[in-house]
Amino acid sequence: MLREQFRSQVDSGGRQVPLAADRSFIERLLCASGERIDAPNPTGPLLYKPLTDHEQRILIFLANGISNREMASRLFVSENTIKFHLKHIYSKLGVASRVQAIASARELGLVK
Q1: What is the pTM of this model?
Q2: Model pLDDT for residues 13-40, shown as the tens digit of each residue
Q3: Using an 8 Å Cβ cutoff, are 47 and 93 in contact?
Q4: Alpha helix stretches (DSSP H) within 9-111
Q5: CATH: 1.10.357.10, 1.10.10.10, 1.10.10.60, 3.30.70.20. Which one for 53-108?
Q6: Phi/psi class of residue 65: alpha, beta or left (left: φ > 0; alpha: ψ in -120 to 50)?
Q7: In angstroms, what is the C-alpha Rg of the chain?
Q8: Which of 30, 36, 83, 94 is the most exposed place for a label (fewest CB within 10 A)?
Q9: How far apart are alpha carbons 88 and 13 in whole angstroms?
Q10: Percent residues over pLDDT 70 in the chain
Q11: pLDDT digits 0-9 by tens, 68-99
C-alpha cells in the first residue's frame, strides 16, 4: 500500500504531485522496511521478510523438483536443515506446501 501511495505521488517525470499524504514520510517508511522505491511493482503479494541466500538456493532446487535428500547432499547439510529452511520459506511466502511455494515463487519472480 505504501508503494502504491508513493507511486501515486510521483508523476511519470518523477516530479512530486501534490496530495494529502506526505511523500517524504512514505519514502522513509519504504526505505526503512528495505523496500526499493525505484523497483517496479511486483505482480503478486509482497514478501514480509526477504529470503536468505540458503533459502533462495533451496527454493531454486525446489522449483527444479530436487528432493530434500538431494538438496542436503548438494549443500552439504542435513535433511533436517533443509526441512528447517523449507519451513521458513513456506512461512515467508505464506504457503503450506511445495507446490504452493513454487507457484508463489514464480508469481513473485523468484524462480523461473
Answers
A1: 0.58
A2: 555 555 545 666 666 666 666 666 555 5
A3: yes
A4: 23-32, 53-63, 68-75, 79-93, 98-108
A5: 1.10.10.10
A6: left
A7: 18
A8: 36
A9: 40
A10: 57
A11: 999 999 999 999 999 999 999 999 998 999 99
